[in-house]
Amino acid sequence: MSQTDPIADMLTCVRNAVRAGHRRVDIPSSRLKEAIAETLVRERYVQSCRRIEDTKQGILRIYLRRAEGATPVITNLQRVSRPGRRIYVGKDEVPRIMGGMGSAILSTTKGILTDKEARTAGLGGEVLARVW
């Protein structure tokens, strides 16, 4: 039986757009994807994001950020927890990505947070992705 993983599809679209040198990427929208995109905006990995209404579920347009010399800010995105194997961590086990240079995105009881925000709030949760 095949399962779809919309978060992995979103991360793959963003990763492919970064590697292809695009300025923006459009993906089908959902509340979880919007929350993940807003987290990427807060952490300054992407420039901005907005939802575009259509007749279906809407489109999430993500504008990618570039550093000096037109190099992309995002080096890599990895999906950690997946439908076949969920990865949960307690408040004392929240991972540090590249010694604090990257970010882990967690789904907590307070919403979608980064590893730094979860540590500050004293929360654990499901580790959705790693960004650096």
Describe this structure in words.
The chain has about 130 residues and is α+β, with helices and mostly antiparallel strands. It has a single domain, classed as Dna Ligase, domain 1 (2-Layer Sandwich), CATH 3.30.1490. It contains 3 helices and 8 strands. It has helices at about 5-20, 30-40, 115-120; strands spanning about 25-30, 45-50, 60-65, 75-80, 90, 105-110, 110-115, 125-130. The strands form 2 sheets. Strands 4, 5, 6, 7 and 8 form a 5-stranded antiparallel sheet that branches. A 3-stranded antiparallel sheet has the order 1-3-2, with helices on one face. β6 and β7 (about 110-115) form a beta hairpin. The protein is globular, with a radius of gyration of 15 Å. It starts with 5 loop residues before the first helix and ends with a strand.
Please outline what is shown here.
This protein is an alpha+beta fold. The protein has three helices and eight strands; from the N terminus they run αβαββββββαβ. It has a single domain (6-131), classed as Dna Ligase, domain 1, CATH 3.30.1490.
Please name the CATH topology: Dna Ligase, domain 1
Overall morphology: globular
Going by helix content, strand content and strand pairing, the class is: alpha+beta
CATH class: Alpha Beta
Fraction in beta strands: 25-35%
> What is the C-alpha radius of gyration, as a whole number of Å?
15 Å
Helix and strand succession?
HEHEEEEEEHE
Biggest β-sheet strands, sense, barrel: 5 strands, antiparallel
Summed up, the domain count is 1
